[in-house]
Amino acid sequence: MEDRLKKKKVKHFIYNLLGYLLGVTIYDLLGNENSTLRVLSGILFVIVVRALLDLYEYRKHPKMREKEKQLEKDERLIIIRDKAAYFTHNMTLTILVILWFVNVIKQNDELSYLISGLIVVLIILMELSKLYWSRKM
């Protein structure tokens, strides 16, 4: 059952990619050139393909939903997910600080102000989420 769940994640990634490419291709074939609507068209097709795939798989394998719910409550996987999120947050902050430093050296004030704002927002969101979850648990 767990092998099937791993294969399901790979299938979802492939179908998401194919759905996006299909949506963008159809949009291009219609002769439109607006890049924003092109991306939205691809995202719309991803949503449609993913919904159809989920409906098909849950009807074909009804026990898979129960197994997914069990895995969501697995403490080991929760710890792994939390550590991965924390690491990703710290790496994003590190990259933003490096970009900020480079833009300060290049004297690109507008971009350095934008990056400073992003850094502050990320730090505030992290601290607020820590406060929320410490009170909730």
Quickly give the structural class: mainly alpha
Largest sheet: none
Number of helices: 5
Report the count of strand segments.
0
Strand content: under 5%
Helical coverage, percent range: over 70%
Question: How is the topology of this model organized?
Answer:
Blueprint: H1 2-29, H2 35-60, H3 63-72, H4 75-105, H5 109-136
Helix pairs in contact: 1-2, 4-5
How would you characterize the overall build of this protein?
- With 137 residues, the protein is mainly α.
- The protein has 2 domains: 1-73, no CATH class; 74-137.
- The chain has 5 helices and no strands.
- The longest helix has 31 residues, at 75-105.
- The protein is flat, with a radius of gyration of 21 Å.
- It starts with a helix and ends with a helix.
- The mean pLDDT is 85.
Q: What are its keywords?
A:
about 140 residues; mainly alpha; 5 helices
How is this structure best summarized?
With 137 residues, this protein is mostly helical.
